[in-house]
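User: I'm writing a tutorial on reading structure tokens. Could you give me a worked example: one chain, its sequence, then its tokens, then a sentence or two explaining what the tokens reveal?
Assistant: Sure. Here is the example chain.
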Amino acid sequence: MALRLSRSIVGEAEARAVSRVILEDGYLGMGNETRLFEEELAAYLGVTPQQIITVNTGTAALHLAVDAVAAQCRVTDGPAEVLVPSLTFVASFQAITAAGCVPVACDVLPETGTLDLRDAEKRLTPRTIAVMPVDYASNPWHLDETYDFARRKGLRVVEDAAHAFGCRHHGRKIGSFGDMVCFSFDGIKNITSGEGGCLVAFDPEAARLASDARLLSVENDAQKRFAGARSWDPDVKHQGWRYHMSNLMAAIGRVQLSRLESEFIPARRALAAVYAERLADLPGAVLLRTDPEDFIVPHILPVRILNGRKEAVKEALSREGVPTGVHYKPNHLLSFFGGGAVSLPVAERLYAELVTLPLHPGLSREDAENVCAALARAVSA
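And here are its predicted structure tokens:
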């Protein structure tokens, strides 16, 4: 089989779970299966089920989180602003604008690609309500410092942890602490529900707002659906969206969660260890830095290609059958978010260097070693 940059790792167990919902339960929408998935996620993270809001995409989780925060932190003299690193998937920025706020693009640290708090501090205004750290490449780099920064500046934190399910920061699972923590469960993430995601809310009012908003802001509708009922005499007081997670998606997610610790985490970490060992002393290629006290479950494997060789290396790898990606084009360079009106030199430099190598549990150790050998040939050519 040809090498894949990333892929879904699903099989008979997930198929049986979906079949069970279709043939035995017969209710495909949001119901008991979704409730069970939320309870199992809560048990895994060590939080209460009331803090877990499952949704149909990770982007929806981010949108609901920003929207709830904006409802609690009203700004009267213009749109609210959210500080966000530019080196992230466009979903981070789109979620902010969808909530009626302005994403304020910040620079990143060259060794990690994560938020540069010194740059973020320069961009604070009276309209800033939140900061959105991104656990880029599953790396919760100095996350405690970000929360300290937010407390000092009176900001909320919406953590984009799309890459970081299963990771731990200084012994604590990502999603077991914080303010508003958002995960993605799309097809290639550390676990998948086909599509989907969830929000973990540590403020009860924000959790209530987000839970209602995912079902068109019909008050307490999620709880009624979990009990097999519907809201036939509803009230709606806020804007809402149809973002809920279906039973079909939850059935896949429940199986995936059961495979995470025994299968997916060991496989991803073992492959990352191969890359770290083989590329440690390779001239012209540099892996991003991580904190040895953090437990990283890598979703992607970006490497910096130095000396202006990125495109040549990508082409050489392609000729050897090694697919590559680029994570990501900085958002401040996109037309909708300014088209380069501001300069963020580190994010721009990383964009000119970063190449993503294949990483997923379907790869073998031999596959990873072959990729490293091909990269060594490419950078030395």
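What the tokens reveal: The chain has a mean pLDDT of 96. The two ends are 27 Å apart (CA to CA).
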